[in-house]
Amino acid sequence: MSRISARDALEYATRDEFLKLYGVLVVGWTLTLVGQSVAAGATPFGLLLGTLVVIAGLLAMLAAAVATLRKILAER
Protein backbone atom coordinates (compact mmCIF):
# COMPACT_ATOMS: atom_id res chain seq x y z
CA MET A 1 0.00 0.00 0.00
CA SER A 2 1.46 3.33 -1.02
CA ARG A 3 1.54 6.32 1.28
CA ILE A 4 -0.22 9.52 0.31
CA SER A 5 0.90 12.83 1.72
CA ALA A 6 -1.60 15.11 3.42
CA ARG A 7 -1.00 17.78 0.79
CA ASP A 8 -1.85 15.38 -2.05
CA ALA A 9 -4.97 14.17 -0.24
CA LEU A 10 -6.16 17.73 0.39
CA GLU A 11 -5.49 18.71 -3.22
CA TYR A 12 -7.43 15.67 -4.45
CA ALA A 13 -10.40 16.37 -2.16
CA THR A 14 -10.67 20.03 -3.15
CA ARG A 15 -10.79 19.69 -6.92
CA ASP A 16 -13.56 21.56 -8.71
CA GLU A 17 -15.57 18.41 -9.41
CA PHE A 18 -15.56 17.41 -5.78
CA LEU A 19 -16.41 20.91 -4.60
CA LYS A 20 -19.52 20.87 -6.81
CA LEU A 21 -20.56 17.52 -5.35
CA TYR A 22 -19.96 18.79 -1.82
CA GLY A 23 -22.13 21.79 -2.69
CA VAL A 24 -24.98 19.54 -3.81
CA LEU A 25 -24.61 17.59 -0.58
CA VAL A 26 -24.85 20.78 1.51
CA VAL A 27 -27.87 22.01 -0.48
CA GLY A 28 -29.59 18.65 0.05
CA TRP A 29 -28.88 18.77 3.76
CA THR A 30 -30.20 22.34 3.95
CA LEU A 31 -33.36 21.39 2.06
CA THR A 32 -33.93 18.54 4.48
CA LEU A 33 -33.63 20.86 7.49
CA VAL A 34 -35.90 23.51 5.94
CA GLY A 35 -38.44 20.88 4.94
CA GLN A 36 -38.56 19.52 8.47
CA SER A 37 -39.22 23.01 9.81
CA VAL A 38 -42.00 23.62 7.29
CA ALA A 39 -43.53 20.20 7.95
CA ALA A 40 -43.70 20.97 11.67
CA GLY A 41 -46.36 23.59 10.91
CA ALA A 42 -49.96 22.81 11.79
CA THR A 43 -51.46 23.21 8.31
CA PRO A 44 -51.92 20.24 5.99
CA PHE A 45 -50.41 22.23 3.10
CA GLY A 46 -47.31 22.94 5.19
CA LEU A 47 -47.00 19.26 6.00
CA LEU A 48 -47.26 18.31 2.34
CA LEU A 49 -44.84 21.00 1.20
CA GLY A 50 -42.38 20.15 3.97
CA THR A 51 -42.51 16.46 3.14
CA LEU A 52 -41.83 17.14 -0.53
CA VAL A 53 -38.89 19.40 0.33
CA VAL A 54 -37.47 16.76 2.70
CA ILE A 55 -37.73 14.12 -0.03
CA ALA A 56 -36.01 16.44 -2.52
CA GLY A 57 -33.24 17.10 -0.01
CA LEU A 58 -32.74 13.41 0.68
CA LEU A 59 -32.58 12.64 -3.03
CA ALA A 60 -30.00 15.40 -3.55
CA MET A 61 -27.87 14.05 -0.70
CA LEU A 62 -28.12 10.51 -2.02
CA ALA A 63 -27.20 11.59 -5.56
CA ALA A 64 -24.20 13.57 -4.30
CA ALA A 65 -22.98 10.70 -2.14
CA VAL A 66 -23.30 8.16 -4.95
CA ALA A 67 -21.62 10.48 -7.46
CA THR A 68 -18.75 11.16 -5.06
CA LEU A 69 -18.19 7.46 -4.40
CA ARG A 70 -18.37 6.66 -8.11
CA LYS A 71 -15.82 9.37 -8.88
CA ILE A 72 -13.45 8.12 -6.19
CA LEU A 73 -13.73 4.51 -7.36
CA ALA A 74 -13.40 5.42 -11.04
CA GLU A 75 -10.13 7.27 -10.43
CA ARG A 76 -8.49 4.42 -8.53
Classify the secondary structure makeup into a structural class: mainly alpha
Estimate the mean pLDDT confidence.
92
Helix content range: over 70%
What is the N-to-C succession of helices and strands? HHH
- Overall morphology: elongated
Largest sheet: none
> What is the terminal separation in angstroms?
13 Å
- What is the tally of beta strands? 0
* Rg for CA atoms: 17 Å
Kindly estimate the percentage of residues that lie in beta strands according to DSSP: under 5%
Number of helices: 3
Task: State the assembly state of the protein chains.
Answer: single chain
* Low-pLDDT regions: none
In short:
The protein is an all-alpha fold. It has helices at residues 6-13, 16-39, 44-74. The protein has a domain at 42-76.
Which key terms come to mind for this protein?
single chain, 83% helix, elongated, 76 residues, mainly alpha
